[in-house]
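<tokenise_the_fold>
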Amino acid sequence: MIPGTSVAGMIRDVEICEVGPRDGLQMLKGIMLTEKKKAWISALAAAGLPEIEVGSFVPPKLLPQMADAAEIVAHSRTLGSLKVAVLAPNAKGAIRAIEAGAHKITMPLSVSRSHSLANVRKTPDEMIGEIRESARLRGESPSRPIIEAGLSTAFGCTIEGSVAGSEVVRLAVAAIEAGADEVGLADTTGMANPQQIKRVIADVRREIGDRLTGVHLHNTYGLGLANALAAYDAGIRTFDSSQAGLGGCPYAPGASGNVVTEDLVYMFESMGVRTGIDIGKLAEARRIVTEAFPDEPVYGHVPAVGLPKYFSPA
């Protein structure tokens, strides 16, 4: 969906993709029952989320939380105009995602070699090859899902430390040349700051233009919303977030959860930036998660204190 257009009667200036069912659940020790997961995704769609990353196509022995990914995709495709997104770490996973009918496939392309080897057991340049093969396979399928290269650790790595901006740009260009439709920048470790966000976005945009479409931000150092605002000021209009701030990366030691969906929606709506998302209905969706995992820590300022009396959605 293009921000500013109408979907099911909603006008949006920004598009928020909910990644909790994938990024959030993969970090939890427990496994959400498939029917509960379907109920959560349905509630998120009813709240107005235009895009939801519903799972990942990885071997179940590595992530048993995602063993039902194909069934979840099939359910999610019944939810009106919802864009059904998934993650695939390689071409094998991409094949399964294509067969399941996902609308969008994100492939993780880490800027940090150490993180890439830990996360997908391939170097960044080997992952470019996986993107190229996935694009070829996608071209042979009846459907044509979007392929996004998710540039993880684009702003810093807990293993290697700082990453070179020139390497971020190089890999973004290589991903597009390999057949990716778009590139997203991920602050996997939450190490970014607003000035850095603006600089990296400008550098990547200079080379691939509007093929840079979104950001995926973590809140490790409490700068998630500040970085989201910086990205918005830099022209980004698509943002990943996770309900209750669930999520992180098992291969980025110390990295904590994502930007909280409820807080991100509130920030934009209070600014007069339309998200098309109903915060009240988000609260209903949140209850499904908190009831399923009562012992898991959850986050969010808006859920904790409620909306101010003067609040009026954009």
Strands lie at 6-7, 10-11, 15-18, 51-56, 83-87, 104-108, 146-151, 182-187, 212-217, 238-241. The first strand starts at residue 6 and ends at 7.
